[in-house]
Structure formats: C-alpha cells, structure tokens
Design brief:
Blueprint (H helix, E strand, L loop, with lengths): L8 H35 L3 H9 L5 H19 L5 H24 L4 H37 L1
Helix pairs in contact: 1-3, 1-5, 3-4, 4-5
Length: about 150
Amino acid sequence: MESTLHNPALIAARTTSKAATIAWWLVTALFCLEMSFTAYYELMRLPEAAQAFTNLGFPAPWFRIELSWAKVAGVIVLLVPMISARLKEWAYAGFAINLVSALIAHLSLGQGPRFWSPSAITSVFWVLSYFLWRRLEPSSANRRSVQCEN
C-alpha cells in the first residue's frame, strides 16, 4: 500500500471520489424522488393526470400506466447499488427519452414555462446524475486495479 506522504495525489483522488459519490447520491435521490412523484401521480388514475396526457396527444390510459411502471423500475435500478452498470445505462437512456419526449410534447403545443419547466428541471437533475455516475464508474475500476497492484 502506497503512503499518502509520498504521493499527495492519493488524498486528492480519494476526496474527489468521496465528494463525487456524495454529489451523485444527492442529485440522484432528488431525480428519483421527482420521477417517483410523477409515476405516483400518473398511476393514481387522477383525472388531472389523464387529462394532461390527453392534452399532450398521448394514447389512452395504457400508455400512462406503462410509462409509470417503467419509471418505478428505472428508479429502483438507479438506487440499488448491486445492479449492473449496463442496466443503469439503460435506465438512464429510458429516462432521457421520457424527459426529451415530455419537453417536445409541451413545447410543440406552445405551452408556457408553467407546463414544461418541471420536465426541464428534472432533465437538469438527470444530466447531473448521469455525468456524476459516469465519473464514478471509471474511478471504481481504477481503485480495483490499484488494489490488485499492491
């Protein structure tokens, strides 16, 4: 094991990794909370949710229900640490498609910020979560290779 006295870069690498991990968990928790709320809202068969989907031109209730359960599955995939990186990548891709589609639907109808801003804000959380996750992935592989060398 290499001493941090001889290699101060090890201290910086650990703190960056810890800070990035904490940042990822915070941003991802906020993102997953928002996606869970929208899934709950859509699954409760509230007349407002059904009307919102109809106004956006999406198909009847089956699409809303399918989309909601996909969000729940994606949230689980992102938050459970033991799930493979490939599955997490698919969850991030699914959320990206969902968020971009929501923004396009609202903007194509000429709706104002009151309608599209929740999707835009959630998209910012998605971007932060995804890029922090991508930053963490290689660092965990590097830690394993350093441990194997020592």
